[in-house]
Sequence to fold (214 residues):
Amino acid sequence: MSAATLAPAGAERTKTRLLELVKRHGPQTAQDLAQRLDVSVPAARRHLSDLQEQGLLESRTERPGGRGRPQHVFALTDRGEAAFPKTYSSLCVDVLRHIEGLFGGDALLKVLDARNAEIAERLRGDLPAELPLGERVQALVGRLNEYGFDATAEQDAEGGWVFTQRNCPNLTVARQYAQLCSAEITLYTDLLGVPVARDTRIACGQACCRYRVG
Fold:
């Protein structure tokens, strides 16, 4: 097997190690990461650039310890954080199970409705009613991607809008509580101001969640 054949796998291992270093030590400069990995700074920068394009890292300027000269550092994005194992989903399932057991299904729906209202309040400014529907859909997809949904939008043959989520960050919860998916439909309908219907659902074993708008 040639070195060229091994290179991609080696590059992916290096990227994984870069993410692990940033997770363990916090925001790092390219020079610090190159030193920790024992690679050249240009090589580290190439990997960092790839990770930025994948939405796993972001670059920003910080003063070490709040003092000294500003430095260009790389930090995990929300999507990068999500790449590491979490127990949040199992905790969420436990909490919802206890709410339903103690107070009934209506209480569970009230909790999800309150969550919807909070999310809608955060996103509504990005989707003003005066924008054309297509722009509102695109804006919603952009925000969904910030939350790790790997979403895309397109127009169908009739000129209507369709958007797709190829990842479900809440899959563990959604598989046990279909109410979460129902609440999601309500949220999208509220934000876009038109009916939204789901054609496919990841939680049911399909490849993506696909939504028809209007």
About this structure: The radius of gyration is 21 Å. The mean pLDDT is 86.
